[in-house]
């Protein structure tokens, strides 16, 4: 029985509205007993928040199935030396870091960690840049530049710090294979027996490809059939939407 890693936006939901058939797909997967990770680059919501978000759209999933770039960032940092972090982000990210044993501080941090926040300001840019220039390691939850309606996302917030310091962060989220490995460890799964379902060739499918997973592209979100030939790699399967998937 295959492990399943499934994206949210563009696969299960559009904004917060159900993509028809995705509820039946997820409920079937749970009934079959496939190990399931619902994976998102978005670091602002906790597993409980995401459970409530999907539940409101009619998809009922245990909280333990959700895995975010904030969780993966905390997992990544547990494997590094250092315990102090200056954080630009919301409560879900700081919560995961606290749980991993980190001290959140603006005094000689070992790491500068950027997630997403609407309260981004000049002072944050200044402090983060000064710390990174002084040797703090620069970590970002995900490389996405924008969300719905061109709302600024993590990659955009990192851009100012990158330009000032000349240093790029390590991006934990998709398309990095790190978040895939971290999600698999979360369910004690292995890449050779895992399929990833996503709507974006350059994040979901690339991350799966780089991590050695079987890949399923659904064309209900970002990438369309015409986009497949623009990339040097290919998904293993293509379906119009999650409700059409019949191979897991």
From TrEMBL:
<keyword id="KW-0378">Hydrolase</keyword>
<protein>
    <submittedName>
        <fullName>HAD-IIA family hydrolase</fullName>
    </submittedName>
</protein>
<dbReference type="Pfam" id="PF13344">
    <property type="entry name" value="Hydrolase_6"/>
</dbReference>
<dbReference type="InterPro" id="IPR036412">
    <property type="entry name" value="HAD-like_sf"/>
</dbReference>
<dbReference type="InterPro" id="IPR006357">
    <property type="entry name" value="HAD-SF_hydro_IIA"/>
</dbReference>
<dbReference type="Pfam" id="PF13242">
    <property type="entry name" value="Hydrolase_like"/>
</dbReference>
<dbReference type="InterPro" id="IPR023214">
    <property type="entry name" value="HAD_sf"/>
</dbReference>
<dbReference type="GO" id="GO:0016787">
    <property type="term" value="F:hydrolase activity"/>
</dbReference>
């Amino acid at each position: 029985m295959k492990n399943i890693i499934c994206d949210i936006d563009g696969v299960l939901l559009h904004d917060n509205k159900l993509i028809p058939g995705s509820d039946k797909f997820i409920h079937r997967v749970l009934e079959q007993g496939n190990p399931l990770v619902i994976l998102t680059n978005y670091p602002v919501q906790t597993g409980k928040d995401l459970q409530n978000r999907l539940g409101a759209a009619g998809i009922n999933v245990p909280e333990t199935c959700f895995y975010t770039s904030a969780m993966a960032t905390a997992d990544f940092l547990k494997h590094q030396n250092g315990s102090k972090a200056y954080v630009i982000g919301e409560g879900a990210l700081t919560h995961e870091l606290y749980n991993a044993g980190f001290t959140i501080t603006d005094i000689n941090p070992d790491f500068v960690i950027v997630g997403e926040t609407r309260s981004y300001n000049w002072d944050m840019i200044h402090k983060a840049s000064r710390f990174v220039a002084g040797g703090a390691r620069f970590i970002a939850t995900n490389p996405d530049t924008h969300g719905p309606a061109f709302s600024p996302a993590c990659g955009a917030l990192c851009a100012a710090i990158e330009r000032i310091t000349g240093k790029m962060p390590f991006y934990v989220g998709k398309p990095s294979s790190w978040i895939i490995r971290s999600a698999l460890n979360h369910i004690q799964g292995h890449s050779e027996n895992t399929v990833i379902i996503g709507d974006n060739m350059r994040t979901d499918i690339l991350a799966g490809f780089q991590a050695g997973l079987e890949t399923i592209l659904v064309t209900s979100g970002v990438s369309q059939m015409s986009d497949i030939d623009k990339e040097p790699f290919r998904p293993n399967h293509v379906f119009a939407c999650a409700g059409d998937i019949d191979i897991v």
